[in-house]
Amino acid sequence: MNALNALNTLLGARVRRTVAGGLAGGLLAGALAGALTGCGIESTDVIDAGEPATGVKSPGEPAADVQLFFYGPNGLRSATRPAKAPVDPQEAIELLMDGPNHAERQRGLSSVLPKFPGRLTATTGQGRVALTLPMNAKLLDSPSLNQLVCTAANARVPGDKPPGEVTVTVVGEGVRVGPMVCGGNNAFPVVQPSPNTATPRSAG
Description:
Layout lengths: L1 H37 L27 E7 L2 E7 L7 H9 L4 H5 L14 E5 L2 E5 L9 H12 L13 E6 L2 E9 L2 E4 L15
Parallel strand pairs: 4-5
Antiparallel strand pairs: 1-2, 3-4, 5-6, 6-7
Helix pairs in contact: 2-4
């Protein structure tokens, strides 16, 4: 019996040490969690990072936002959309043809462009854009011209001219309109300087 009592005493001591160790570990973990929470750090589950972010410009890169022109309650207005890289006139016009997105419609913006019977194409040169329409260019009204000219001029055009100095010509079915420039929020014909006329010399 003495040996059995000694064995029971030894086992009891081991169980008490194990329980005490477990309680100490739990108290330590609780204390750490409390300390982190006190510092403003909350414990969270594992969060799936998802897809890498896109469209973020690196430091030093030029802005790649694209300017599209729609109509609002107070006339022609620009809508800025982020882009991964500078957008050329062809891409800008194609975005324009898709119309305003949900956020832009919420701002009261809309497009007045007609339903074209085919694709519009944009070709560029130094400081100039030529838009080719699948229709007679003379049939395009002024509000539609404003949208097209200002959107094309504010895209990436060779020559690095300011948008107000980029000339835009609209051509369709052999008819040419322009060149025009986007001044403010409207398109205006480029005023060509009149040729100098020789002034007759006065006699004597």
